[in-house]
Amino acid sequence: MPQLFDVAIVGSGPAGAAAAIHAARAGHSVALLDSAEFPRDKTCGDGLTPRAMHQLDLLGIKVNPSYRNHGLKLHGYGGSVTAPWPDTYPTNEGTALPRHEFDALLVREAVAAGATLIHGTATAPELAGNRIVSFSVVDGSGATDTMKARWIIVADGVRSTFGKQLGRTWHKDEVYGIAARSYSSSPRASEGWMHSHVELKDADGVVQPGYGWIFPLGAELGQVNIGLGALSTKSRPAKINTKKLLETYAAQQRAEWGLGPVEKVASAALPMGGAVSTVAGANWMLIGDAAACVNPLNGEGIDYGLETAAMAVSLLGGKDFTLVWPDRLRAAYGEAFVLARTAARLLTYPQFLPVAGPVALRGPVGRMLMPAAARLMGNLITDEDRDLIARAWKLAGHGVAWARRDTPLWS
Ligand SMILES: Cc1cc2nc3c(=O)[nH]c(=O)nc-3n(C[C@H](O)[C@H](O)[C@H](O)COP(=O)(O)OP(=O)(O)OC[C@H]3O[C@@H](n4cnc5c(N)ncnc54)[C@H](O)[C@@H]3O)c2cc1C
Questions:
Q1: Cα(153)–Cα(10) distance, rounded to whole angstroms?
Q2: Ligand 1 centroid from CA 302, angstroms
Q3: Scanning 158, 260, 289, 301, which has its CA 20 to 30 A from the CA of 269?
């Protein structure tokens, strides 16, 4: 007999687990699937900005309560800028927690809310038109079960193996990220700022097209997440070996941060800014990384995973998601993501940062604009904000979205 649920959720990362919590709390019967057993690692910077914190507050979940950060410190080209989280957003605190712990915490909350956790890989959707009738779940031993649900939320991450079987396509001619992360002990693990180094040099001192980060994880863990990322497009792929450059970056920062050896070095790609198509059918929706809901300007996707989870669950009960879901995503993020994608594209030109970096981090223009960097990079501007920076950002968003109206955006 096939298993029958109101909602089946494929993938139990932050997006899937949050969808399971929302759906179970709304009274639906929920199957939460993952091919991995939790706790499991996920290559990530582990940073939670106010956007993510706000969603976690709405879920009533406390994360790493003994550690909070207050914004970004950007370094490079002979300058440094401190950019605090804005007071205008519902919360002005961030934190960080290794995904090994964070994701397991959310999955426990989902189970506590009533979701049934199932260990297995979702595959082979059986379709009637673009409606999923059933799909197979293959467990570790190779045994196959059939799953049926009224609605299916697909939260299977960057590669979206299940989403691909439904037609999800990733447009790599738009900007995407490649990144590596690791962990290291540091006496500065309790420092309340996320740090980013935008002048990244290889072992020969040559500036590389990317940025490094050091995200403290709090005194209890005594560690920092140290990593680096670069932006690419199919026609201008970032020609860097992220893992090797990470070792060099860590060596450059070792004295200042008192770093121990780097551990658990891992790399991954990031889809960004909604550059995927076919994200919904009659009874299914893609959320989180599967729908490329990652901010191109700072690489954060946990917050968008949590947000798209809440948005998708709020639509359950509706008739057909095929057009409704991409429309909903475009209304929420379209302009901000296209603007961020367009700005991020500049970073794929090797000449851009060496020219713009000194202006932004040292000159008078930078002194005026860069304190707002955390707000702009983190897309922490709400619909209600009416100040000059918010107005200018929104105006730029309208303009760029209009100019690039044919760019792939969940379509
Ligand atoms: C190096 C790096 C650094 C990053 N740093 C940050 C950061 O500091 N802050 C931030 O907000 N974001 C960061 N991101 C982005 C962030 O990691 C992702 O946006 C986030 O993990 C998306 O969550 P998700 O739930 O959509 O997907 P995932 O977390 O990838 O979860 C997907 C889950 O689906 C499961 N799965 C896949 N296929 C199937 C299947 N067929 N059947 C069943 N289960 C399946 C997987 O096992 C996995 O558990 C970073 C990404 C990278 C690569």
A1: 6
A2: 8
A3: 260
The closest-lying atom of ligand 1 relative to the alpha carbon of residue 33 is 43
Fold of 3-65+97-172+272-336: FAD/NAD(P)-binding domain (3.50.50)
Give the pLDDT score at 191: 97
Residue 116 tokens read as 């049934």
d(CA 229, CA 143): 39
**Per-domain residue ranges for the chain?**
3-65+97-172+272-336
Distance in angstroms (rounded) separating the CA atoms of residues 196 and 211? 7
Q: Give residue 296's region: left, alpha or beta (phi > 0; psi -120 to 50).
A: alpha
Which residues have C-beta atoms less than 6 Å from ligand 1?
A: 10-16, 33-36, 42-47, 52, 121-122, 155-158, 161-162, 179, 181, 227, 268, 270, 288-290, 294, 299-303, 305
The pLDDT tens digits of the residues spanning 369-379 come to 777 777 777 78
Which pLDDT tens digit goes with each residue over 300-331?
A: 999 999 999 999 999 999 889 999 999 999 99
What's the mean per-residue pLDDT of the chain? Answer: 93
Distance, in Å, from the CA atom of 283 to the CA atom of 258, rounded to the nearest integer, reads 52
Identify which of 355, 359, 363, 354 has the alpha carbon closest to the alpha carbon of residue 207: 354
Give the distance (Å) from ligand 1 centre to CA of residue 52. Answer: 14
How much of the chain, in percent, has pLDDT values that exceed 70? 99
Determine the distance separating the centroid of ligand 1 and the alpha carbon of 330, expressed in angstroms: 21
